């Protein structure tokens, strides 16, 4: 490995972490990192004083360009759009800031920002870059970056839960939900769900899913209590396997057929540990990262 390759390899995880938070897609993030390598390998690196900042600038710009180019595609998406889930390591869950910034809930909120606001928010609030550094990265004036950062911060603050249960409580509730769902225990499911819980299902038009949010504890509990009794995506209940895993920095569930992953489930919690939202991704195109089985390190430092 050459010196230039070693430098890029050293920051590869950081670059993926930035790109994934900006794009909400593991496949697109990997492509962006690969494009960043092409730019890095052809650049005049003798003029690069800070490789970390330089590479982050490259990947941020590429991610921003990609986000803009796919905006229309996401706006015309069939049913709710959810981020592509990834497996993460236990270290991510233990680092609260890292876990929250890569959670499904946060990525859903970030999707409501403009491309520029999203990139600025990720670089400033998650990775701690200065306004001046971000201005260089996104090729905007520092004043424009400050304004975008303020708008994004206020927007995210207004849409994010102010208080959430601690990590151990979240794991405990997820384990109970898992047991109740796979055992068809609707009463326990009702206990774990907030009365106005919302289930978001993302099939992307590829598989049959609810095209609108499913709201209410009774309806959502009935949905999950039926898992062990109904055929899902032509998979018989006896052939379906469910597993508790860490997804996007928090506890989640992966449902699999003998030959493929068919869905993931992640949760939002209130301060008491009740489930307030459930995100169910079943679009096969968004399950490739889970199928690969690689746990991503999405640390911010």
UniProtKB/TrEMBL annotation:
Entry keyword annotation includes NAD: no
Domain RNA polymerase sigma factor 70 region 4 type: 106-155
Pfam families: Sigma70_r2, Sigma70_r4_2
Domain RNA polymerase sigma-70 region: 8-71
Sorted UniProt keywords: Sigma factor, Transcription, Transcription regulation
InterPro entries in the record: ECF_Sigma-70_Domain (IPR052704), NTF2-like_dom_sf (IPR032710), RNA_pol_sigma-70_dom (IPR014284), RNA_pol_sigma-70_ECF (IPR014303), RNA_pol_sigma70_r2 (IPR007627), RNA_pol_sigma70_r4_t2 (IPR013249), RNA_pol_sigma_r2 (IPR013325), RNA_pol_sigma_r3/r4-like (IPR013324)
Family of this protein: Belongs to the sigma-70 factor family. ECF subfamily.
Known partners and oligomeric status: Interacts transiently with the RNA polymerase catalytic core formed by RpoA, RpoB, RpoC and RpoZ (2 alpha, 1 beta, 1 beta' and 1 omega subunit) to form the RNA polymerase holoenzyme that can initiate transcription.
Name of this protein: RNA polymerase sigma24 factor
Organism: Streptomyces incarnatus
């Amino acid at each position: 490995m050459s010196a230039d390759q070693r430098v890029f390899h050293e920051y590869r995880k950081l670059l993926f972490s930035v790109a994934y938070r900006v794009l909400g897609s593991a496949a697109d993030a990997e492509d962006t990192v690969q494009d960043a390598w092409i730019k890095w390998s052809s650049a005049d690196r003798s003029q690069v004083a800070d490789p970390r900042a330089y590479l982050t600038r490259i990947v941020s710009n590429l991610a921003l360009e990609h986000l803009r180019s796919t905006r229309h595609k996401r706006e015309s998406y069939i049913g709710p759009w959810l981020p592509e889930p990834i497996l993460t390591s236990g270290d991510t869950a233990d680092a609260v800031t890292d876990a929250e910034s890569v959670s499904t809930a946060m990525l859903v909120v970030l999707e409501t920002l403009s491309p520029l606001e999203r990139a600025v928010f990720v670089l400033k609030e998650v990775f701690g870059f200065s306004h001046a550094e971000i201005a260089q990265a996104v090729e905007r004036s520092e004043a424009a970056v400050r304004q975008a950062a303020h708008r994004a911060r206020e927007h995210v603050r207004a849409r994010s839960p102010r208080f959430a249960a601690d990590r151990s409580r979240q794991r405990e509730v997820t384990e109970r939900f898992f047991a109740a769902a796979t055992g068809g225990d609707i009463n326990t499911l009702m206990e774990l769900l907030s009365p106005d819980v919302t289930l978001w299902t993302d099939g992307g038009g590829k598989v049959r899913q609810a095209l609108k949010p499913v709201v209410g504890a009774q309806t959502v509990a009935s949905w999950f209590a039926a898992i062990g009794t109904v055929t899902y995506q032509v998979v018989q209940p006896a052939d379906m396997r469910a597993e508790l895993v860490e997804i996007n920095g928090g506890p989640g569930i992966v449902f699999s057929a003998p030959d493929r992953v068919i869905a993931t489930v992640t949760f939002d919690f209130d301060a008491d540990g009740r489930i307030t939202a459930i995100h169910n991704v079943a679009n096969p195109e968004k399950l490739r990262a889970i199928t690969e089985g690689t746990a991503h390190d999405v640390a911010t430092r």
